[in-house]
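Feature request disguised as a bug: please show the residue count (375) next to Endolytic murein transglycosylase in the output. Example input:
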Amino acid sequence: MSPSNDYNSIKQERAKEAGIVRKVVLIVILVALIVFGIAGYFIYNYVSEGLSPVDPEDDELVEVEIPMGSNVGDIAEILEENDIINNATIFQTYVTFKNESGFQAGEYTLSRSLELDEIIESLKTGRIMLEPLFSVTIPEGSNIERIAEILDNETSIEEDEFMEYMTDEEYIESLMEEYSGLLTEDILHEDVRYPLEGYLYAITYDFHEEDPSVEEVVDKMLQQTQNRVYEYIDDMDARGMSIHEALTLASIIELEAVGEDDRLKISGVFHNRLNEDPPMALQTDPTVLYAMGEHHQRVLYEHLEYEHPYNTYQNTGLPPGPISNFHESALRASVNPEYHEYLYFVASYEGENYFAETYEEHQQNIEEHRPRDEE
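Example output, currently without the count:
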């Protein structure tokens, strides 16, 4: 075979191989395009579905609770669990992409027909999507019996019905299981008057149905208390206080002082007394009134002699449990007291508090600002 024939043969062979390679490359490219196309289609559908309302035709309202301290990821999970959004990951990515922030904790009434932007706007403004039928305000310093009266006056729940739930052991135990981080065995102590005393938070509650049940109302209240309490868990741990102890002290502070500064200072007095060796009795009048179960304009000396586990004139340490609910500022004061050396304080009849380090100074304050009551 001549050299020219060998060259032509080799050239033809290479051309054939190149053709095969081109076909293979073309096939690979086509397959890749198909794969990417299918993947893109599914990704598009995945993202599109995640950005769309769960059901544009479903306007049924769902109550959603966003706890205090929730981040975007937490909120996304809560919304998905309540079937308000299709996809938590898409929601979180969308919020991050739009640089949205400032979401507020609280109770929201949302529907499956809402767009993501509508949900985001609601969470940022704290605005619910439907006006409540009515609202009920539970004031700070309210005890269980007062709450029962308020609900009887402003809802379809009767006072006796509510009080039955407050003493129903089976119901209380079911709540302890549901709120195991908040309701501990301390609430079942034999000297505690009502297990949920102090745990039903003071705030205005909105209702979107005419006849809420006791269980629904109590659940709303415990959710609010849990949200506040969990913010101060680290402070409680640092002081070696249980939740029950912190709420008990908060309830006393709530009834002893109104102003933020006085609450911090009075908390310091109580902590100083508890830390004495041996501990001093707290000697706080609101516990006497709670022990007696009666309202008096002034606490007289004869009242101080009333023998009862809640009477902090007769017993050292904290009473068996809270004596009322509380405002968050009272809880904050109970676990973050002002540091000072005061062991005594007395309130004038005008409501101003005077503090002292010694008993002699305290007596002078009493004589000057609160003359002795006559029996």
